[in-house]
Design a protein that fits this description.
Blueprint: H1 13-43, H2 48-51, H3 53-94, H4 96-102, H5 105-132, H6 139-170, H7 176-196, H8 214-221, H9 231-252, H10 254-260, H11 266-290, H12 296-315, H13 320-333, H14 336-345, H15 352-361, H16 365-377, H17 388-405
Helix pairs in contact: 1-5, 1-6, 3-5, 3-7, 3-15, 3-16, 4-5, 4-7, 5-6, 5-15, 6-11, 6-14, 9-14, 9-15, 9-16, 9-17, 10-11, 11-13, 12-13, 12-14, 12-17
Organism: Mucilaginibacter pineti
Subcellular location: Cell inner membrane
InterPro entries: Lfuc_symporter_FucP (IPR005275), MFS (IPR011701), MFS_dom (IPR020846), MFS_trans_sf (IPR036259), MFS_TsgA-like (IPR050375)
């Protein structure tokens, strides 16, 4: 008789806590980058379209680092992959100092790109790492749990960013606050890397490679089948691309929406952005709990349908009803990234790490989509929110069709 799988095992708890902290760290940097969008518009006097190159720099790094990070992880292991990611992260943060001194948008984009190479490496490593810390049947729950702390970081990022925006209003050419903030971030990341280098990693039998349940065994038996013949994996890459595209566009112009539709100050809008990250964090904890009763792919479709409705309301520019809907986009968005990631990795056996690299590369959608939304937002920021509907339709279809894409899954 099969028993209900545990969330994780006691020997993995310390490692799980440490790896979960990585999710918080890149949550801070991701949302802080969206806050910098508006700050660069104010201080460096650039358009909404050009400020969207911030997202291109961040998400473009994912396309560059996805495969190299996966190959590095496969050759040198999870721990060394984490350390490499933290090294890039810290280096990029410290490069903000000369970028701020030069008051150069191009230099800032280089610093952001290097920092994001670290974020991309951490994401490539951390997701399969967390998935491996226990039974494959509970990997969805572990990844969503870890991603909930990404939401905590998402709250911290715009909250801190609101002080940068306030500084930008008081001193029109002030990049000092940005410089000081990233010095602190660089020091914290370097300290975390040093501590993690001393953490002993227990022997891990990757639950995606060798597992006791029938689905995982089938995955090992199909090890010789090309990764690109796995329909659920291919659709996961596409769904993740559109998912992060929607995220990048929604977050990039949140503060502009608050300023132009609600007539808030930039710092006030940034605080609401921080609150929207609280909504995302609540959504992830709620989603983790709901997945014990609702299959992850079904919940994914439900949440995608919710965001289609929210985007329609936001695009009307109705004032508070539309702004509340904008806040709720993050609630429904909450489970999408980790759930798509986990569903895409199911039953791939020894190809799991390679698949993780490709799914991370799908994140490049977040670099392209804000540019397209920026062209519309230059004329009407509310109307620009019709565009993410396309993305949520793709995500809905991924969840709805998942049992047919992955025949090992029962409806």
């Amino acid at each position: 008789m099969s028993t209900k799988p545990n969330f994780t095992e006691s020997k993995y708890i310390v490692v799980l806590i440490f790896v979960t902290s990585l999710f918080l760290m890149w949550g801070v940097s991701m949302t802080l980058g969206d806050t910098l969008n508006k700050h660069f518009q104010n201080v460096l006097h650039i358009s909404k379209f050009r400020s969207a190159y911030v997202q291109l720099s961040i998400f473009g790094a994912y396309a560059v680092m996805g495969i190299p990070a996966g190959l590095f992880m496969k050759r040198f292991g999870y721990k060394n992959g984490v350390l490499m990611g933290l090294a890039f992260y810290a280096l990029g943060a410290f490069l903000f100092v000369p970028a701020a001194n030069a008051e150069s948008f191009a230099f800032f984009r280089i610093a952001l790109f290097i920092l994001a190479c670290g974020m991309a490496t951490l994401e490539t490593v951390a997701h399969p790492f967390v998935a491996a810390l226990g039974d494959q049947r509970t990997s969805d729950q572990r990844i969503n749990f870890a991603q909930a702390f990404n939401g905590v970081g998402g709250v911290i990022g715009p909250f801190v960013g609101s002080f940068i925006l306030q500084s930008g209003l008081e001193h029109s050419n002030d990049l000092i606050a940005v410089k000081h903030l990233y010095i602190i971030i660089g020091c914290v990341v370097a300290a975390v890397a040093l501590m993690f280098s001393f953490v002993k990693i227990p022997a891990i039998t990757d639950s995606h490679v060798v597992a006791e349940d029938a689905y995982a065994v089938a995955g090992v038996e199909d090890a010789d089948v090309s990764l690109f013949k796995q329909k659920h994996f291919l659709f996961a890459v596409v769904a993740q691309l559109f998912n992060v595209a929607a995220q990048g566009g929604t977050w990039a112009f949140f503060i502009n929406y608050g300023s132009e539709v609600m007539h808030f100050t930039d710092s006030h809008s940034a605080r609401f952005f921080s609150f929207s990250m609280v909504m995302m964090m609540i959504g992830r904890f709620a989603g983790t709990a709901l997945m014990r009763f609702i299959k992850p792919y079904k919940l994914l479709s439900i949440f995608a349908a919710g965001n289609i409705i929210m985007c329609i309301i936001v695009a009307q520019g109705f004032g508070w009803p539309s702004f509340v809907a904008l806040l709720f986009i993050n609630f429904f968005f909450s489970i999408m990234f980790p759930t798509i990631f986990s569903l895409g990795l199911k039953d791939l056996g020894p190809k799991t790490q390679q698949a993780s690299s490709f799914i991370v590369m799908g994140v490049v959608g977040g670099g392209v989509f804000p540019l397209l939304m920026g062209l519309i937002a230059n004329h009407n920021v509310a109307t620009a929110y019709y565009m993410p509907i396309i993305c949520y339709v793709v995500i809905f279809l991924f969840g709805f069709l998942y049992p047919r894409l992955n025949r090992k899954v029962t409806a």
